[in-house]
Amino acid sequence: MAKRGVGVMSGEFGNDFISVMDDDGNELELEHLDTAEVDGELYMAFLPADMDEDDEDFGLIILKVIVEGDEEILATVDDESVLNTVFERFVERLSDGEDA
Q: What letter would DSSP give residue 49?
């Protein structure tokens, strides 16, 4: 998924869901799990909402929030070391939430 604008569908109950378009033009629905700031940049963690947990592509999706004017755009994280750092932060944050 390259830099894409997304529409947010807020649920009155539960988490928020967004629809994004991947590079191949496929629409994906993602469930927003958490947002975190890492090294001054904002990142969001998602799970595929319309994918079976047994699917090999199922897993945490991390997108970077880029502000352009009045618009927030979600973009993929291309730097592997940044992605690993952000992934670890989300794993810590989400694990802490399960203990509560």
A: T
Strands across the sheet containing 61-68: 7-9, 17-21, 27-38, 41-48, 61-68, 71-76
Higher pLDDT among residues 41 and 26, named by residue: 41
H/E run at residue 84? helix 80-99
Give the integer Cα–Cα distance in Å for 19 and 5: 10
Query: Is 11 a residue whose pLDDT tops 90?
Result: no
Per-residue pLDDT of 28-84, as tens digits, reads 889 999 999 999 999 999 988 877 777 776 788 999 999 999 998 899 999 999 999
Rounded distance between C-alpha atoms, residue 11 and residue 20, angstroms: 17
Instruction: Give the C-alpha distances (Å, rounded to integers) separating 1 from 11, 21, 23, 76.
Output: 24, 7, 5, 6
- Smallest Cα–Cα separation from 63: which of 88, 99, 100, 36? 36
Cα–Cα nearest to 61, from 95, 11, 17, 12: 17
